[in-house]
Amino acid sequence: MTIVHLSRGDTRLVLDCRGEGLPRIVHWGADLGPVTGADLAALVEAVRPPVVPSGFDAPTVLSLLPEASAGWGGRPGLAGHRDGTAWSTAFRLVDVDVADAPEQTARVRVRAVDPDAALTLTVELDLDPTGLLTVRHRVRNDGTTAYEVRELVPVLPVPPVATELLDLTGRWCRERSPQRHPWQMGTWVREGRHGRTGHDATLLLVAGEPGFTFGRGEVWAVHTAWSGDHVTFAQRQPTGESTLGGGELPAPGEVRLAPGEEYATPLLYAVHSTEGLDGISAVLHTHLRSRPQHPGTPRPVTLNVWEAVYFDHDLTRLTALADVAAEVGVERFVLDDGWFTGRRHDRAGLGDWYVDDTVWPDGLHPLVDHVTGLGMEFGLWVEPEMVSEDSDLFRSHPEWVLRVPGRLPPSWRHQQVLDLVEPAAYGFVLDRLDGLLAEYPKIAYLKWDHNRDLTEAGHQGRPAVRAQTLAVYRLLDELRRRHPAVEIESCASGGARVDLEILRRTDRVWASDTNDALERLPVQRWTGLLLPPELIGTHVGPERSKTTGRRHDLGFRAATALFGHSGIEWDLTSVGPADRAELAAWVALHKRLRPLLHSGRTVRVDHPDPAVWVYGVVAADRSAAVYAVAQLATSATRVPVPVRLPGLDPHRRYLVRPAEGVPGPAVLQRDAPGWLADDGVVLTGAALATLGLRPPALHPEQTLVLELTPAT
Questions:
Q1: How far is CA 27 from each of CA 46, 174, 340, 647, rounded to the nearest angstrom?
Q2: Residue 676, pLDDT score
Q3: What is the pLDDT of residues 438-475, one digit of tens each?
Q4: Which residues contact residue 683 at a Cβ distance below 8 angstroms, ignoring those fewer than 6 apart?
Q5: Model confidence, pTM
């Protein structure tokens, strides 16, 4: 065997495949410069650990799958057993297959066996042209008896310079709240046991050198791409190793391999950058945009009717709402919860996916035809994985619920989880959704919701979160196969199912159920750590937020919704002419900027004033940009400090001025800065990134949107 050196983007991967045991990653990180085969051998030798007192008599090395048999004393890569035996493995390398064609994804496939444990291990490493690394393990039972996998988790080493950790937590209406702390000895473990990704999901676990920021510092990050129970962790050993890892979190007995069966881990996405968190996002966003299934058409401005009408479905009211929506520039009109049999409130009806003829005597056709006649797409809300106890479906099939025998799990929003592992239940849901889309071929979009955690999720007495998750994936895949033109949103009581595996099958996520613009800013900022703007639903809510009671000017709400897949969640029939006109202007601005916003590089500025957030998107060729200066609260300084605008071409000259066509923010000053009074200023990208420009003194909860265009 040999030493493998892979190079993609700004990332390098060095894998030592010599010896009988599993290969080990010698380096995952920055460019090592030009290296020859002899250089690689010297590099491996240069970092080989010594033998120290009170330790093993040979150097302990961290392999692709950490094993106790190799001296590893941390979390095992594989935890499992065969009726109490084969609980520790000693895999021996069989072969390494490397495909390293230029400008394509580099692939390494490692195969190893443990004849005593009767297991075969396959490790798959892919390094794509952006520098994004994905890792997956597969284990096959070669024995004659069952083997239970308790945990199989890919891990990656990071160097000791990474001494700080950042991850995300949250709750309903406050998803993606960042937390960071020193990376000390021991293990920092984030477990999700919700049966879905979770409002508190870490999204990305980031390790970095001290003081890393959005724009500075060397960082390493991992994402566990799985929509069920999962674990992500950072581990630092007294023996000197530091690792990041993540994978599925099976319940006891959930992964039990019969002879010949195989278990594959979820993909672990791993990213390295020397340019801080924005560098991590740049790799992830570029990767996601390169996928064949990534949305390729302009993201339609969307109006969702939930906060406008709730369960009060009335054709006259909804057609009037559609008229106003079209007037302000909406391109997609989504009918939310309440259209199906018995659904007059949230205590009944889930599972009965038939149009309620007491509310819609002519079906949804009159509304669908009216909406599409106005030039808008029509979308529909569904929650196919759930069932109300007060429903015809539950009364007919009470056994079609994920549960422990003899009792129902605690209810949540007065609903239970439909057991999609049960073939008949799966077939019923697929047939109903397929039937709806066939009956209403003008439906272009499904808002697919998931409004509760999975608790005591069992099928026929056995834990079933994994099987349920895979059934949901199959359901989405089959529905997309039958109706490839229909787009699907991943919504889960807001942002509780945001991960890259569900996004293989969906076209955007609903980041949060809160439309409070002040709360939305951090939710969108940190969701954007993983996802590009076009995959994040960002809507303008009413003046008074339904979730916080806070009031905001229309400009602040609209500017917050500008940087994403923009839309509206508001009863526009109650809005006066002046606000309608202003909203239409913001919609027009979004449409004008949309090609840039949904293709450029996201920039989050490291600004010294915590009361001011500066962020933007720079065109891929750096010819143009749009930035926002958001005043979240009052500042400690009386006069605002200058704002730097990084990410631009340092040699290009840009005209900087407030966004055209929309009202400016409310300001607290007697005289505007000179560059504003002169209708803009021309500066080089270097000057804007180094010196910046001084913004106006904004009132709290106001946003100034700046457009940058080439200077003539």
A1: 12, 37, 56, 28
A2: 85
A3: 999 999 999 999 999 999 999 999 999 999 999 999 99
A4: 653, 654, 656, 691, 693
A5: 0.97
Please write the tens of the pLDDT for every residue from 350-370: 999 999 999 999 999 999 999
Q: Residue 101, exposed/middle/buried by CB under 10 A (0-12, 13-18, 19+)? A: exposed
The pLDDT score that the predictor gives to residue 712 is 79
Which residue is it, tokens 């006069």? Answer: 639
Active site residue 431: no
What pLDDT, on the 0 to 100 scale, is given for residue 153?
Answer: 98
DSSP-derived 3-state class of residue 215: coil
Judge whether 260 and 141 are in contact, CB under 8 Å.
Answer: yes
CA dist 371 and 378 (Å) reads 6
- d(CA 269, CA 271) in angstroms, rounded, equals 7
In which residue are the tokens 């996802």 written?
531
β-strand pairing of 377-382 with 332-335: parallel
Rounded to 5°, the CA angle 646-650-653 comes to 105
Low-confidence stretches of the chain (pLDDT < 50) are none
- The active-site residue, picked from 167, 356, 507, 513, is 513
Structure tokens given for 362: 């002519």
Distance CA 687, CA 682 (A): 10
Q: What is the DSSP letter of 535?
A: G
* C-beta separation of 619 from 647 below 8 A: no
Neighbouring CB atoms inside 10 A of 39's CB total 14
SS3 string of 136-187? EEEEEECCCCCEEEEEECCEEECCCCCCEEEEEECCCCCCCEEEEEECCCEE
- Alpha-carbon distance values, 653 to 392, 411, 599, 600 (Å): 66, 60, 21, 18
pLDDT at 677: 75
Q: Tell me, what's the pLDDT at 294?
A: 97
pLDDT of residue 8: 97
Q: d(Cα 374, Cα 300) in Å, to the nearest integer?
A: 14
The answer to whether 507 is a known catalytic residue is no
At residue 476, the pLDDT reads: 98
List beta partners, residue 29: 12
The pLDDT, as a whole number, for residue 678 is 77
**Sheet with 230-236: strands ordered across:** 155-157, 242-248, 230-236, 186-192
List the catalytic residue out of 128, 229, 337, 449.
449
Which residue type occupies 672?
Answer: A
> What is the per-residue burial (b if ≥16 Cβ within 10 Å, else e) of 546-583?
bbeeeebbbbbbbbbbbbbbbbbbbbbbebeeeeeebb
